[in-house]
Design a protein that fits this description.
In chain A, a hairpin with a 2-residue loop joins strand 10 and strand 11. Chain A has helices at residues 4-15, 17-22, 48-62, 81-88, 103-111, 144-153, 169-181, 193-201, 212-220, 276-291, 293-301, 311-332, and strands at 37-41, 70-74, 96-100, 121-129, 132-136, 160-164, 186-190, 207-208, 224-229, 240-242, 245-246, 264-270, 309-310. Chain A has two domains: 34-129 and 264-332, D-Maltodextrin-Binding Protein, domain 2, CATH 3.40.190.150; 132-256, D-Maltodextrin-Binding Protein, domain 2. In chain A, helix 5 (103-111) packs across helix 12 (311-332). Chain A is built from twelve helices and 13 strands. In chain B, helix 5 (91-102) packs antiparallel against helix 6 (106-140), helix 8 (166-181) packs across helix 20 and helix 11 (252-267) packs antiparallel against helix 12 (272-286). Classes of the chains: A alpha/beta (339), B mainly alpha (501), C mainly alpha (168). Chains in contact: A-B, A-C, B-C.
Chain lengths: 339, 501, 168
């Protein structure tokens, strides 16, 4: 821990980016970035997308996967609309990436901001984030059926569902659950996933649809209980997490009679009008990122769905997903007036 | 006492030479980040987070938390010297700190600010060491209604104390609320008050407003008075630190009160900003020198700084034990913990003893090192005021512009900064108080949000704010604070009547 | 606070006039806020207040407060107090105007070049320093800022053609 090398590494990283840049001679082969690459995060510091962007930044600099440095910039205003508009406006800039979450679809639909994913160039899908239905561990509900039955018995709106943000993924899932089960929740938006989890532990809400990483600590401490996962198949992670339970032991919601699937895109896009060579460069770069132990650890900790897609497959997936969001948001009445 | 044994083990971890070095580097980086407006603690920690990937989690968190302490210390420097608070919780420090600097007492103000910060942080760390699990349970009690009551209390204890005409205070504060409302409404996910301008999507950041209102406004006022920067007389007195230290114990009551307020606000978690405003407001009311607050009273520096640091430090407790960040910076640290594979939550204290107690030990030592670093700089910092105004003013303008830009990477913010500057100048000359405006921008959003979350939960019934002992008590305290001047008058009249009879 | 720091020796805009202007300004903000709130709904829905509920009342308070302030000025006895003398205002404008030019060209010219110009102008014009000193500070500050923000903290600042030319 006290190795002088490491110390030197720190100092060099902090002070000597100049050296790295100075030594970056232009290569004659394929396209390569010639100045620092910005990753725009259309969300605040500390959230899931921000974390992922900074992990990517850290991995690239630690393993020197790129000669230029990576800069992470948060543009959270207007549910991320600010960040997307910035990328949309940087036509042809090959030194800019944007990491997306579901607000790629929900923000333009819900707020009417003039933006569509087609304004961007798809690069790669890095992973898909899972959602799990959680209840407080002190409650008697062991299965989705127990819970939904009680919700049905109570007057509509008495059960409270906590989630992150408004008219975004958590609320969309809530509405879809309501529709699938024929019940009515009161949805309460909070600012971050951690806060949502604690509101559930403190019994201020009855259930949540947190991502695995947001609630795992409370689960392991025996404070919350997962009922089902909103994926088509159970999660792939079989390490024991809480007592004798692993992520893989959580049944899918579909198998529990709640016919509903939802996964959130963690993907990388670029501004419109960039060259194919630049896109290819970043695809290769991100492939290398995915091979590192740090990335694998992040996937493991967050129980991510590790689907990787690029090119036409990716664009097709995004297109389908957009249609689905449009449908879901329309049914929920979340579309901004004028859409 | 298992905790004490753990703590000593923690000290052993922290005292490794590499970790001490990491600590000093962190503090220095933090002070620089705190001094540069715009690069606040949250930004700074986020920017430096990837650098720590090659360290062990313990060293990394020591580094990042020391950046955090450094930024907390650094925030006070620009507040006192140039009336530019780099962080929301330093706003209250400007009220008395900057007048002191103008009177040539910058050294005193800086010493008081740094020392109080240290005391506040120390108090909070001791509390974390001794009662961590208990405190975590207390924090769980706070749902939306309870949070709103805390914001309500913060507002109530701060307003109603300005000397300006009430109607001007109301206008000023309401403009702050209106500015806070611009952008995305968190509860409904709707855009409001943007009128289709994409520049307004992000709303008005607090920092843009204070850099303009306070920093630029101050430069304009100085220009009007003819270039003389009033701190010019400031003598460089190396003994000022010790002289101020001799004076500080007199304010132990204020200090203790501020520590308690700070810890409470940090845990709930409402954060350091309401803590600093509340502590300043209460000190102003109960202090014998209260009438002199705002004119350069050292107690007016002690109160907010102590509370801000107590809150900033204790905010790390709910983060570690529950996974809820008590401040934006804590949110970034939380992200860091997750990246290193540490899951903040109830089990962290059990499973990651070395890490947790190493961090707690680093809080003790980090703050001590931080105090040492900044205190030695006091004479140097005070000397900055001797630089002629025609050099320092354009440099401040440039740094403010950079700061305004870096908040959201939005050039429009720089334009708004200048607009706020002119507004600040005119408002000040017309006797409109600026502090309520800033308080409203900082807390308006969160207060409205928790109010509406509470009402969503209660299905629109206002009784939720009296529904249990905790929220009811805080609301009543708020009302008492609001009507304190009247209650106080009534009380003294009754006493006078009793003595007469 | 600064009630009347300037004995009416010179001439300038009266305090009264400026205060009236401020009331109109704040009143206008209030009206804008009210209009904006009406657009998103100001009612109290079944699930608590809508997005425009708070801003609407905030707007009403601003308009109300502004009217009270305006009445207070109009009803008060006319005072001769000055807001500031013209000479003083000229001083203030000598900061505001260059800064306004600075912020408006900054995105096109780039922050480093325009900062150099601003600092140089200030020191030369208001401080009357020699060119050596002017050059030292006006070059030094942007260079330090560049190293600190772009190189050290990896925060990109706006750049323009001059920065591109130098290759930053």
């Amino acid at each position: 821990m006290t190795s002088p090398n490491r110390l030197f590494g720190l100092g060099a990283a902090a002070l000597g980016t100049a050296l790295v840049i100075a030594s970056a001679l232009p290569s004659s082969a394929a396209w390569e970035p010639t100045r620092p690459v910005e990753i725009i995060v259309p969300a605040g510091t500390g959230g899931g997308a921000d974390q992922m962007a900074r992990v990517i930044q850290g991995i690239i600099s630690k393993h020197t996967l790129m000669k230029q440095s990576v800069v992470v910039i948060n543009k959270a205003g207007g549910a991320g609309g600010e960040g997307f508009l910035d990328v949309k406006g940087s036509r042809g800039n090959p030194h800019k990436l944007v990491i997306t979450l579901s607000n790629l679809f929900t923000t333009p639909l819900g707020t009417g901001i003039p933006f569509n994913w087609k304004d961007l160039t798809p690069v790669a899908m890095m992973a898909l984030d899972e959602f799990v239905l959680w209840v407080n561990a002190e409650t008697p509900y062991k299965t989705v059926k127990d819970y939904i039955e009680d919700v049905k018995k109570a007057p509509p709106g008495q059960f409270k569902m906590g989630g992150t943000g408004s008219k975004q993924e958590d609320q969309i899932i809530t509405v879809a659950v309501e529709k699938a089960a024929g019940v009515k929740f009161t949805y309460i938006p909070f600012r971050g996933g951690g806060e949502v989890a604690v509101q559930l532990v403190g019994n201020h809400v009855n259930s949540t649809v947190n991502n695995p990483i947001e609630a795992v600590a409370q689960w392991r401490a025996g404070k919350v209980r997962p009922l089902c996962v909103f994926d088509g198949k159970p999660l792939a992670y079989t390490d024991k997490i809480a007592g004798d339970k692993a992520w893989a032991d959580i049944p899918t919601c579909k198998s529990q009679g709640l016919d509903m699937e939802y996964l959130m895109l963690r993907g990388i896009f670029m501004p419109p009008g960039v060259s194919k060579e630049a896109v290819d460069y970043y695809v290769e770069l991100l492939k290398k990122v995915r091979e590192t132990p740090e990335w694998k650890k992040l996937m493991n900790d967050g129980a991510f769905n590790q689907t990787f897609m690029t090119g036409a497959d990716y664009a097709k997936w995004v297109e389908n997903e957009e249609k689905r969001h449009q449908g879901l948001m329309k049914e929920a009445g979340f579309l901004a007036s004028g859409n | 006492m298992e905790e004490i044994a753990n703590l000593f083990h923690g000290f052993a971890v922290v005292l490794q030479p590499f970790n001490i070095l990491v600590m000093v580097v962190g503090i220095l980086l933090g002070v620089i980040i705190g001094v540069l407006p715009g690069l606040g603690g949250a930004n700074g920690v986020a920017i430096l987070l990837p650098l720590t990937f090659s360290m062990s989690p313990t060293s990394a968190i020591i580094m990042l938390s020391c950046i955090y302490w450094g930024a907390l210390f650094g925030g006070a420097i620009t507040s006192i010297l140039f009336n530019i608070p780099g962080e929301p919780w330093s706003v209250a420090t400007t009220f008395d700190g900057h007048p002191m600097a103008q009177q040539g007492r910058a050294g005193e103000a800086l010493t008081a600010a740094f020392t109080s910060s240290f005391v506040g942080a120390l108090f909070a760390v001791v509390m974390i060491t001794l009662v961590a699990p208990l405190v975590a349970r207390f924090a769980l009690q706070f749902g939306p209604a309870e949070k709103f009551s805390v914001y309500f209390l913060a507002f109530c204890s701060f307003i109603g104390m300005s000397k300006e005409p009430p109607s001007k205070t109301v206008v000023s504060m309401m403009i702050g609320f209106a500015l806070a409302a611009v952008g995305l409404d968190q509860v409904t996910g709707q855009l409001r008050l943007t009128f289709g301008f994409t520049e307004l999507l992000a709303g008005f950041d607090f920092l843009i407003a204070v850099i303009g209102l306070f920093g630029i406004g101050e430069i304009l006022l100085t220009m009007e008075e003819g270039l003389s920067f009033r701190g010019k007389k400031a003598s460089i007195n190396p003994r000022v630190v010790f002289q101020t230290w001799a004076e500080l114990p007199r304010y132990w009551v204020t200090s203790l009160r501020s520590c308690v307020i700070g810890c409470w606000m940090g845990i709930t978690p409402a954060g350091a900003t309401p803590a600093s405003f509340m502590s300043y407001g209460i000190a102003k009311r109960v202090s014998r020198k209260g009438h002199n607050f705002g004119k350069g009273e050292i107690e007016g520096v002690v109160a907010p700084e102590t509370a801000a640091h107590a809150a900033g430090t204790s905010a790390l407790l709910p983060m570690l034990s529950l996974g809820v960040p008590g401040s934006p910076t804590a949110a970034v640290l939380l992200g860091g913990l997750l990246i290193w594979g540490l899951q903040p939550g109830p089990l962290l204290f059990v499973e990651q003893k070395e890490f947790v107690w190493g961090l707690i030990a680093s809080m003790y030592l980090g703050n001590l090192v931080g105090l040492f670093v900044v205190i030695t700089c006091v004479p140097l910092l005070a000397a900055i005021l001797r630089i002629p105004f025609s050099i320092i003013a354009p440099v401040i303008l440039v740094l403010c512009a950079i700061g305004a830009y870096t908040v959201n990477n939005n050039p429009f913010d720089i334009v708004m900064m200048l607009v706020f500057g002119v507004v600040g100048y005119v408002f000040k000359k017309c006797n409109y108080p600026l502090a309520p405006l800033v308080l409203a921008i900082v807390l308006g959003d969160s207060a409205e949000e928790s109010f509406r979350q509470a009402l969503l939960g209660s299905q629109g019934s206002l009784t939720v704010f009296w529904s249990n002992g905790l929220v009811g008590t805080i609301m009543v305290l708020g009302l008492i604070a609001l009507f304190w001047p009247m209650l106080h008058t009534a009380w003294s009249r009754m006493r006078a009547a009793a003595t007469a009879a | 606070m600064i009630d009347n720091p300037h004995p009416a020796s010179g001439s300038g805009p009266s305090q009264r006039l400026v205060e009236i202007g401020v009331c109109i300004f704040t009143g206008l903000i209030g009206v804008i806020v009210i209009i904006g709130s009406l657009r998103v709904g100001v009612n109290w829905g079944v699930e608590g207040p809508k997005a425009g509920f708070f801003p609407f009342y905030v707007g009403l308070f601003i308009v109300g407060g502004s009217i009270i302030n305006l009445l207070a000025i109009l009803l008060a006895s006319r005072s001769e107090a000055l807001f500031a003398e013209w000479g003083q205002l000229r001083q203030v404008m000598s900061v505001v105007i260059p800064t306004a030019i600075y912020v408006s060209v900054l995105t096109y010219v780039g922050i480093y070049a325009s900062s150099m110009a601003l600092i140089a102008f200030f020191m030369r014009r208001l401080g009357g320093y020699g060119w050596g000193m002017v050059a030292a500070v006006s070059l030094g500050v942007p260079i330090v800022a560049y190293l600190m923000f772009e190189r050290w903290f990896l925060v990109p600042l706006p750049k323009g053609p001059i920065e591109d030319f130098v290759g930053l």
